[in-house]
Each structure stands twice: as C-alpha cells, then as structure tokens.
C-alpha cells in the first residue's frame, strides 16, 4: 500500500514539474478545457436559474388549476380552422360552471389582456400587461399584497373602475409617491389604484411585478368579447383532495350539455391544466440542457484533442528521460501514471478555471439583474469537476500508454 502511495506521490510531482517547466504550452492547453467546461456549466447554471425562477413563480399556484377556453395551451389534434370557429367561453358560461359544478374551491372569469399604456400625470408606461379578471384570481393565484387591498366581489361584479398593480409597475410609475389612492389612465379611462402586490422577482414577462389587474366586468363594457373579439377563459381551482380526473370528466360532461353538444360531436372547448403547462416547461428546460451539452461538447472535444496533442509532444520531448528512468528501474505503471496525472491535472486546472469564471459570471449577472438570481449549484460544480477529470483521463491515456511501452534502449538512443 505504501509503495502505491509513493508511486502516486512521485508521479504527481513529476507531472507538476513538467507543467511548470512548460508554462506557455500548459496555458494553451488549458484554454480549450476552460472554454469547454465554462460553456457547459454556464448553460446548465443559466437553465437551472431560469427553471428555479419559473418554479418559484408557479409555487403558489395549484398545479391542478384548470383553464376552460376556446384554444389549447399545448398541441392538439383539432384542426386550426375548427378551433377558430369554437364559441367563446363567456361570462354566462362562467356563471353556469360556478353554480352547477361541485368540487370547485374558487373560479374566476378573465379576458386575455393586451399590452396597455398606463399614464399618471406626465409619466407614461407602455405595453403593460393588463389583465381583466374577476376578484377570485386573488385566491387562485395566491397573490400577496404589499399595501392596500384587492378589489372585492361587489367591485368585481359591478365593474368598478379600480386597479391593483405589481410592485415594479408601482415603482416605475409613481417613483417615491404613495400609489394607493392615486388615479391613473388605462384604456383611456380613469381608474383608482387600490392596491400594490408584493415583489415576486424573476425575469418572466408574465410576472405579477409588471402586471395590472382590473375587474373583468369593467373591461367587458368596451372590449369585444364576441366570437371575433378578445379571448376569454374560465379559471377553476378544484378543492384539495378531490379526484382530479373525475372532476375534469364531470366538468366536461356538464359543460357539453350546457352547450348542447351531441354525443358524436367533439368538444368545442379545451380544459387546460396547469400541470400540463408545467410539463411543457420541463420539456423545454430539458431540451435547452441537451442543446447546451451538444454545443459545449464540441468545445470539450477541441479541448480534449488539445490536451492529447500536448501530451504526445511531451512524450516526444521526454523520450530520453523516459529511457533513463526505465533503465534505472522505473516500472511501466510509474511512467503511465506520470503522464496520465499530467493530463488529468492539466484538465482539472482548466475545469476549475472554467468553474471560477462561471461563478464570477453568476455574481455579476445577479448584481445586474435585481429581479433574477443566477445560481451555481454544487451539483453543477461537481459535474464540471468530474467532466474535466474524465476529459483528462481520456486525453491522456493514449500518450501515457505509448510512453509506458517505450523500450529503454531505443528511448535513450532516440534522445541522442
């Protein structure tokens, strides 16, 4: 055992000495591995950060939440021309479902908001995501207030001219002024700000931080919600512990009867579940990870070839020394470990530099983006270290093997 420890120690010392004596060559070899590890870990860290941001924003929403509307959130076998002729899910549909389908904890009626211009005094913000929705959205989306309040059922039913705005929106529009009680213009109409939502963070454009909520019945007065108008939907949050599949089937059958559909006719609506939407997000995240690996793999391939090439050159330069070592009794495994360690150390140093650059990048990125936090997980750090070690082993095995197999007499003669 002590013999092997000594072998490892001496091989390690030889490898470090060789790297120090060829600083320029070592530096050039490091670049390829550094770029490869940096590319992989940077992509994985960015994707993980995006995934965490999205998941944190969806964490307060029940994944069994359903969205009944005329279009599908995901792929569907229903032809586009047929989908475009589906009737709207109007306010009457919403009232029917709310009163006739049991097992509903909360439900809301919403219009698909478009980017609106919001004005306050001489300040103007354009393309603000303004969502006309009934008051139940506060419970369904588990919204939290920073100050003020959300509009109540009476204000929702009567279409009161009130608005609740996101944290960033309030900050950008009112700066240091108190937002609650101020009058703003949206849709060219005056609305009173009655509440400001808590800060959620994240880069998601649909984040509550950047949104404005108004009663759906207020927007219905002037927005076209007919078959060719703005899209509408019914949002349903089932009771906890309920059989979701059974609930969905009951909802579908009752809504079909309400719309007068015959048994042989297809549904002229879609019941979209948030769980299906999160599955799509997970699929996108997985695809982004795969693409990152493929792109970064080319960098690693170049880095691996660079290390292997440098190691072959190193073997060539030290052929005479290898012959002398073997003539003095050095075993093949000692020569093998000597060059293999050199390749691994070279790759690991490159990997550590790549990880360090990613870490610096996450700090800079998080500092520049107040609403988004870049993360470098221990899993990704361990992955980067492991990949760089494997690259070193693969790139060094052939040069190390060729060095170990050299005949001592021929090696010494070649040196002269």
From TrEMBL:
Domain ABC3 transporter permease C-terminal: 293-408
UniProt-listed InterPro entries: ABC3_permease_C, MacB_PCD, Macrolide_Exporter_MacB
Keywords annotated in UniProt: Cell membrane, Membrane, Transmembrane, Transmembrane helix
Entry's localization field: Cell membrane
A Pfam family this chain is assigned to: MacB_PCD
Transmembrane segments: 27-47, 290-313, 334-361, 381-400
Domain MacB-like periplasmic core: residue ranges: 26-253
Membrane topology: Multi-pass membrane protein
PANTHER family for this protein: ABC TRANSPORTER PERMEASE YTRF, MEMBRANE COMPONENT OF TRANSPORTER-RELATED
Family: Belongs to the ABC-4 integral membrane protein family.
Name the UniProt record assigns to this protein: ABC transporter permease
Organism field: Gaetbulibacter aquiaggeris
């Amino acid at each position: 055992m002590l013999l092997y420890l000594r072998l490892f120690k001496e091989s390690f010392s030889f490898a470090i000495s060789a790297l120090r004596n060829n600083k320029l060559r070592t530096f050039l070899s490091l670049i390829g591995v550094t770029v490869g590890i940096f590319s992989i870990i940077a992509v994985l860290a960015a994707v993980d950060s995006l995934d965490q941001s999205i998941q944190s924003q969806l964490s307060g929403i029940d994944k069994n939440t359903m969205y009944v509307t005329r279009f599908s959130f995901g792929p569907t076998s229903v032809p586009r021309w047929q989908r475009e002729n589906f009737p709207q899910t109007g306010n009457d549909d919403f009232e029917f479902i709310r009163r006739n389908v049991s097992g509903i904890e909360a439900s809301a009626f919403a219009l698909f908001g478009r980017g609106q211009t919001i004005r306050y005094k001489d300040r103007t913000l354009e393309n603000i995501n303004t969502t006309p929705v009934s008051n139940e959205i506060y419970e369904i989306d588990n919204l939290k207030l920073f100050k003020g309040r959300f509009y109540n059922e009476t204000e929702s039913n009567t279409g009161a001219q009130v608005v609740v705005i996101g944290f960033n929106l309030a900050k950008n529009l009112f700066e240091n002024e108190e937002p609650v009680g101020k009058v703003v213009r949206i849709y060219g109409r005056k609305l009173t700000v009655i509440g400001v939502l808590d800060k959620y963070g994240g880069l998601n454009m649909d984040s509550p931080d950047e949104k404005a909520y108004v009663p759906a019945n207020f927007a219905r007065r002037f927005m076209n919600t007919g078959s060719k108008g703005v899209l509408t939907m019914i949002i349903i949050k089932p009771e906890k512990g309920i059989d979701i599949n059974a609930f969905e089937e009951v909802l579908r059958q009752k809504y079909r009867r309400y719309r007068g559909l015959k048994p042989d006719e297809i549904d002229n609506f879609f019941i979209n579940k948030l769980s299906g939407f999160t599955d799509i997000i997970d699929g996108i995240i997985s695809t982004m990870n795969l693409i990152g690996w493929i792109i970064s793999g080319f960098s690693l391939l170049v880095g691996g070839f660079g290390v292997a090439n440098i190691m072959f050159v190193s073997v060539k330069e030290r052929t005479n020394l290898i012959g002398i070592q073997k003539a003095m009794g050095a075993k093949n495994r000692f020569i093998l470990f000597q060059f293999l360690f050199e390749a691994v150390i070279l790759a690991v140093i490159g990997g550590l530099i790549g990880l360090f650059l990613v870490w610096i990048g996450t700090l800079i990125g998080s500092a520049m983006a107040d609403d988004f936090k870049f993360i470098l997980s221990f899993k990704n750090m361990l992955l980067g270290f492991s990949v760089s070690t494997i690259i070193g082993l693969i790139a060094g095995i052939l040069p190390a093997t060729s060095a170990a197999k050299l005949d001592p007499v021929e090696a010494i003669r070649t040196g002269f």
